[in-house]
Write a structure and sequence with these properties.
By secondary structure, the protein is α/β, with parallel strands linked by helices. It has helices at about 5-25, 35-45, 45-55, 70-85, 100-115, 130-145, 145-155, 205-210, 210-225, 250-255, 280-290, 290-300, 370-385, 395-400, 405-415, 430-435, 440, 455-465, 475-500; strands at about 90-95, 120-125, 155-160, 165-170, 175-180, 195-200, 235-240, 260-265, 315-320, 330-335, 345-355, 355-365, 390-395, 420-425, 445-450.
Length: about 525
């Protein structure tokens, strides 16, 4: 994109933002001077009220227009920055949780709002200088167009424009844009050095692929950027989400001199961290759309390197055989632990063995209730119309659990019971079990029914395989069911081989093994 084209787009964005700010910040001219004084004193102490009053254009849902309050973690971060003039803070927040809005606009405005005689000299660092200028223009637009602010603190805009990446106010505050790695040496306004620095989303996919570049950028931030402050005195903040194991934000979180406020889209109990804006259903639907591997980095600050155990190139598809042509067919279910839970995935994987190959004929990997899982498995069994003999397995612990009652009730309604068998083994560590089947994928022994390739169940199974990693909290119910099916098939094959070696095996006995 040409420089002129980029500037035209940025200017149009700036104009639209100015129009929106002017539209939403009408002043109440009936307010008395005494009421105004009390209101300002309250807003100096109450960050949530401050954002609600002065920034209604940000504190509302873009689609519905309903008001949205700042979250508790927004308030916590703002108070921490305001109360500590030498704060070192990492805000590692999920995407779309208003990192830039608060740290680039509302928090510096709130700090300045406390005492207009104390100059705020802010440096906003972006991935590049152009992106930093665009980010800086957002706070500049507040000075020029926010009628509520102008009514209370006066028109402070003094000099500068959106193209320059720097501007100053009449009360001695100054604001500078800086690109990552750009020299900040000598940066000051009049006699004041920078005292508020924010590094906003300075990680990108290209940078984090090169550890040497990450190291150099981190050194620059601590040496040159922090050095532009007065002996390091001032507020230094880093905001973003953790998109890679080795990244700028991950290095800052490991620095013991920095506090970290980590916010994931959902907390440990599956509740939204920003319930004023998002519902758990909305977040889970987005996770389903983009997949767990991507959501892990963007929404949960847990980047997973694709292929750390299973690699994309190992995922193969094939045309499956008719059921009678398989030596053995096993359908294995992992129903998750809670009878009524819809927060975990329920998984069924059906595998047929032919020679050295294992074909994933059918799979069901969904976030659903136990009732839906049971109905699906019965429905799958009935779809065979007696054309195949399949061994249905589930871990013995589940069969002893209340979960099994759902299978019994469904069977009573249908007039027959699904012939479930128990997997009685004492299972070793889950990671070790699932990792142990990865060589089967690498050597091309496991292949997936090509007719499943574009189904949501298959996509979820593949995504969980590629996301599988030691210590990860990403769902692994699909791989767990897959491992169970492969284990049972291997046991069947081993028993037959033992029988053949002992001379006891007959072809007619095949299905009994």
């Amino acid at each position: 994109m040409s420089l002129r084209r980029r500037d035209t787009i940025a200017l149009e964005r700036y104009r639209l933002l100015c129009d929106r700010i002017a539209e939403f910040t009408a002043v109440d001219l009936n307010e008395t001077a005494q009421d105004k004084k009390r209101r300002i004193e309250n807003l100096q102490k109450d960050y949530r009220a401050f954002t609600r009053y002065y920034f209604p254009h940000y504190c509302r849902d873009a689609e519905s227009g309903r008001p949205i309050e700042s979250a508790n973690f927004h308030v916590k971060a703002a108070n921490q920055v305001r109360l500590n003039p030498t704060v070192r803070l990492v805000a590692m927040w999920a995407r779309a949780h208003a990192k830039s809005t608060h740290f680039n606009i509302m928090i510096p405005m709130w700090i300045m709002y406390q005492d207009l005689t104390k100059p705020l000299v802010m440096v906003l660092v972006g991935k590049g200088y152009d992106s930093a200028k665009t980010l800086l223009s957002d706070i500049q637009a507040e000075f020029t167009e926010n009628k509520l602010l102008q009514h209370d603190i006066g028109c402070l805009m003094s000099q500068g424009n959106w193209e320059e990446g720097r501007f100053a106010t009449k009360n001695g505050c100054a604001f500078f844009a800086l690109g990552r790695g750009q020299s900040p040496r000598g940066l000051r306004y009049r006699s004041s050095r920078p005292n508020y620095v924010v590094m906003d989303d300075v990680d990108d996919d290209e940078l984090v692929r090169n550890p040497d570049r990450v190291r150099k950028a981190y050194d620059w931030a601590l040496q040159a950027l922090m050095g532009c402050m007065d002996m390091g005195r001032g507020r230094f903040t880093v905001v973003g989400n953790k998109i890679a194991t080795d990244s700028l934000i991950s290095r800052f979180t490991e620095n013991i001199k920095f506090d970290c406020i980590r916010i994931n889209a959902l907390d440990s109990k599956g509740r939204p961290s920003w319930p004023e804006k998002y519902t758990a259903k909305q977040i889970n639907e987005l996770i389903e759309t983009i997949g767990h591997r991507r959501a892990s980095a963007e929404m949960f600050n847990e980047p997973i390197v694709e292929g750390s155990v299973f690699k994309q190139e190992w995922i193969q598809y094939t045309e499956v055989l008719s059921y009678p042509k398989y030596e053995y067919t096993v359908s294995y279910c992992d129903p998750s632990f809670k009878n009524t839970s819809t927060s975990d995935y329920k998984a069924i994987v059906t595998i047929g063995k032919t020679g050295t190959e294992l074909h994933i004929i059918h799979c069901f990997v969904r976030k659903c209730s136990i009732n839906e899982l049971v109905r699906h498995w019965y429905g799958f069994h009935e779809s065979l119309h007696g054309r195949a003999i399949i061994d249905y397995f589930m871990e013995a612990n589940f069969i002893q659990d209340l979960i099994f009652d759902e299978f019994v009730r469904e069977g009573v309604e249908r007039g027959y019971q699904l012939p479930l068998r128990k997997d009685n083994r004492s299972k070793p560590d889950k990671f070790a079990r699932i990792e142990a089947i990865s060589p089967l994928f690498e050597r091309g022994f496991v292949k997936i029914n090509r007719d499943l390739k574009n189904t949501e169940d298959c996509k979820q199974l593949v995504d969980q395989l590629l996301s599988f990693e030691k210590g990860s909290r990403v769902h692994d119910d699909g791989p767990d069911a897959l491992e169970g099916a492969i284990f049972i098939l291997n046991q069947r094959t081993k028993r037959r081989a033992d029988a053949v070696r002992s001379g006891k095996y007959l072809k007619s006995d095949r299905r009994r093994m």
